[in-house]
Write a structure and sequence with these properties.
alpha/beta, Rossmann fold, two-stranded antiparallel ribbon, 7 strands, DUF218, transmembrane helix
């Protein structure tokens, strides 16, 4: 085997193993995330269609409400700004949804400036500090939790996690798991650079 061929085989092997290890991290973290009782629950934003939460966001919100009703947090911080094609901020749509499901509006804190997961967590941490909250349960889709946990750690948020898997949108969830691999690499690269 020529040196060039050996190099190509070695490169492909290393790349394949790196992909597998990254995906394992993502899947393992999402499947094993377990919430603990905390001062608050943070629901990370996701697409809004006009003024209505997308199915992914509805599942996140339902999980947040479920945990709130079980006493996992005294408040819910809903985090997300207004994106392209959205008539209102994700936070406003989320708060409206939770109130429509019977939640006390005074227990829902809207953070409506964020345009990314990192911004969600930076701005939610500011709210936590202002309110005197020490810890949080962070909610997102399972495939997103590992990267969210790395970002939360970078912001010194003491957190546990709870993830959703939207079974009626299985194809989208699988795509999410695949897309998370380069997203994780990008996060690690930017953190190291």
């Amino acid at each position: 085997m020529s040196k060039k061929l050996k190099f190509i085989v070695c490169f492909i092997t290393v790349a394949f193993v790196t992909v597998l290890l990254t995906e394992f991290q993502v899947v393992f973290f999402g499947e094993n995330a377990a919430p603990e009782k905390s001062d608050c629950i943070i629901v990370l934003g996701c697409r809004v269609y006009g003024t209505s939460p997308s199915p992914f966001l509805v599942w996140r919100l339902n999980r947040g409400l479920e945990l709130y009703n079980k006493g996992y947090g005294k408040y819910i911080i809903v985090s997300g700004g207004k994106g392209e094609g959205e008539n209102i901020s994700e936070a406003e749509a989320m708060k409206t949804y939770l109130i429509s499901r019977g939640m006390d509006g005074s227990k829902v804190i809207a953070e409506d400036k964020s345009a990314s997961t990192m911004a969600n967590l930076i701005n939610s941490k500011k709210i936590m500090d202002q309110m005197g909250f020490k810890d949080a349960v962070i909610i997102s889709n399972k495939y997103h939790l590992k990267r969210a946990s790395l970002m939360a750690q970078s912001q010194h948020i003491d957190a546990t996690y709870s993830g959703v898997f939207v079974s009626s949108y299985k194809k989208h969830e699988i795509i999410g798991y695949i897309r998370e691999i380069p997203a994780m690499w990008k996060y690690y690269f930017l953190k190291l650079s």
